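User: Can you help me understand a structure? I only have the sequence.
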Amino acid sequence: MSDADRDLVTSIRAELAGLVPKRACDRAAESAGLGSGLATREAAVARLAVRLERDPSEAGHLLSGRRRTKRVRLEEGDPSAVVFDWESAPDHCRIAYLRGRFLSRGSLSVGSGRAHLEFVVPGAEAPVLAHRLADLGLPASWRIRRARGVVTWKSADTIDTFLRRIGAGPAILELETRRVARALRGDLNRVLNAESANLRRAVSAAGRQLAAIGQLEGDGRLKEQPRIVRLVASARRETPEATFAELAERLGLHRSTVQRALERIESLALHGSEGGRRRQPRSTGSVALA
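Assistant: Let's start by predicting it. Here is the structure, written out as tokens:
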């Protein structure tokens, strides 16, 4: 990630950690989401842990006598010590729980038009967390990696929906704005590249055609060609940058007639009169090259 993308992720996490649940049940749910063994170097998450632990109804105890540091660690213990009853919890408590889980166990990567969000949890929790996310309409994949469970999203739309549901506001709007800007730049670059390639091909083709016209004119064969071939050759010399369609419009011909006339000219210059006769252009409707 670039520094700008990294700063944006930090802003999103700080914004989420700065939310203060009004309901006591939501505070308890978020505390449960943070877990019984929290370690973080993020000041915003550390402050959140302190705020939640001041409520005696919530689980966990801050270590007494710890040194002043950016790292805050909740007392390690049995992961089952912090229990959250997902099945009977209302949606607002579920959201608070997932916000805590994301802040303690989640990571977000953005950049180069891609987004990746994952939770790294105890192995047994991975399928449970994936099931809970699916309950909210946010299905995620999960796997075991180095004895830890990893629950993953790689869909930008799903990640945006999740972050918005757990409370991200201005920061997620900035993320979406950057993604749209990247997509527009990508589309613009593709269009410009395609136009540049078309222009290079057109310039190359026009150069070949002008050289062929000059060769036929020099050896006297151009005046022996049908009238339409001579008209197309004259129009090409006057407007070397014109496309087939523009030449056709100027001469009042079909585009295919103009293309075949120029192909005939190139073939005559390359293969001689026999090659030209073998590639006689077909007539189009009432228009013929003879």
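Now, to help you interpret it: DSSP finds ten helices and six strands in the chain. The chain has a mean pLDDT of 79. Let me know which part you'd like to focus on.
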